[in-house]
Amino acid sequence: HYINVNLIATNTDAVGDMNVMLTRDTNWCLDMEGTNISPVTGAVHAYANYSVNSNVGLFIWNGLDVDQIGSDPAVANGNGFLARVWLQELEQPFNPSALPCTVSVVRTSVGGNTSFLVGDEGSSYGFVASIAGGIAGTLAIVGLAGGWYARKRRMEQRS
């Protein structure tokens, strides 16, 4: 199930030509964020449960440009990993989805540091991301509480 976001960012135009999700709905959960060539940084892959109070039903939003998607998700190159993202979207259970939703697409920014609205309402967790640079854009991936989430900036833990 591994997806090499470095190869997607550097060997395809999926990140450089990506669309960024803009929302104020805290029910959208972030799992990938990147910076396109504009340069605009934001959510490029996100999901939300159909019902806010349950884990039943699922919406998946994918803003990656897929014109270079590979035909075989088993191939270990940028096009193959892009195909693997699509395949895993199709294979994702949705009743229940069992996705953790620990990072919201909606976040606040104070003094240049970015904090996600994470977990219980009003709580957040901070961490430092490792940057994966590409010619067309950047995409970073960071581990956090039960899953991998993409981030680009340094974040500070709030108390």
Uncertain stretches: 109-159
Range of strand content: 15-25%
What is the overall shape?
A: flat
Number of separate helices: 2
Structural description of this entry:
The chain is α+β, with helices and mostly antiparallel strands and 159 residues long. The chain is built from two helices and eight strands; from the N terminus they run αβββαβββββ. The strands form three sheets. A four-stranded antiparallel β-sheet has the order 3-2-1-6. Strands 4-5 form a two-stranded antiparallel ribbon.
Features:
single chain, 159 residues, alpha+beta, 4-stranded antiparallel sheet, two-stranded antiparallel sheet, 2 helices, 8 strands, 13% helix
Secondary-structure topology with pairs:
Layout: H1 5-11, E1 29-35, E2 41-49, E3 58-62, H2 78-91, E4 107-110, E5 113-116, E6 138-139, E7 142-144, E8 147-149
Antiparallel strand pairs: 1-2, 1-6, 2-3, 4-5, 7-8
Task: Briefly say what this structure is.
The protein has helices spanning 5-11, 78-91; strands spanning 29-35, 41-49, 58-62, 107-110, 113-116, 138-139, 142-144, 147-149. The chain is α+β, with helices and mostly antiparallel strands. The model is unreliable at 109-159 (pLDDT under 50).
